[in-house]
Amino acid sequence: MIKVAAVPYIFLSFILLFLPGCVYITHFDDVMFLKGLEDNQKQMQAQLGKEEKLYAKLGADIRNGNLKTLTPKHEIVKVYGEPTLCKPAEGQAGIKEACVYRKQAGGLLTEIISLNLDEQGKLYSWKTSDRGK
C-alpha cells in the first residue's frame, strides 16, 4: 500500500523522467539539423586536407624536378586533382590554356601555381608565385 505522502514524490519522479523525452522529441528536427551540419563540416575538413596534400605534392614535385613538360593534362589532374581555375591563354606563343592551383587554406593572398598547357593539352611550362610576400 502506497502512503499518501509518497504519492507526490512518485508523481514528481514520473514527470522528471517523462519531460526530457518530450523536449527531445520536440527538438528532434533541430538536433538532426545540427548533426547534419557537423557531418558536413567534417567532410569539408577532410576534403580541404586532401586538397592541401595534393597542392603540397605539386609544389614539391616542381621543386624536385619531378614534374616534366609534355605531361598530358589528364595525367596532371589524375595526380594532383582538379585545378582551381583553367582559362584560355591569349597572346602567349605556344600556350593554349593556363590552369591555376591555389593553396586552399591561405585565402586570396596565398601561393599559386600556374601550369601552362600547349595546343595538344600537354604541360608547356609552370610558374609559382607567392601573393602574400
Q: Give the assembly state of these chains.
A: single chain
Give the helices and strands as they follow along the chain: HHHEEEE
Give the biggest beta sheet: 4 strands, antiparallel
Give me the Rg, rounded.
29 Å
**What integer is the average pLDDT?**
82
Topology of helices and strands:
Layout: H1 7-26, H2 28-63, H3 73-80, E1 85-88, E2 97-102, E3 111-117, E4 123-130
Antiparallel strand pairs: 1-2, 2-3, 3-4
Question: Can you give me a brief rundown of this structure?
Answer:
With 133 residues, this protein is an alpha+beta fold. It has three helices and four strands.
Keywords, separated by commas or semicolons:
48% helix, alpha+beta, 3 helices, 133 residues, Beta-lactamase Inhibitory Protein, Chain:B, domain 1, single chain, four-stranded antiparallel β-sheet
Write structural notes for this entry.
The radius of gyration is 29 Å and the shape is rod-shaped. The termini are far apart. With 133 residues, it is α+β, with helices and mostly antiparallel strands. It has a four-stranded antiparallel β-sheet, with helices on one face.
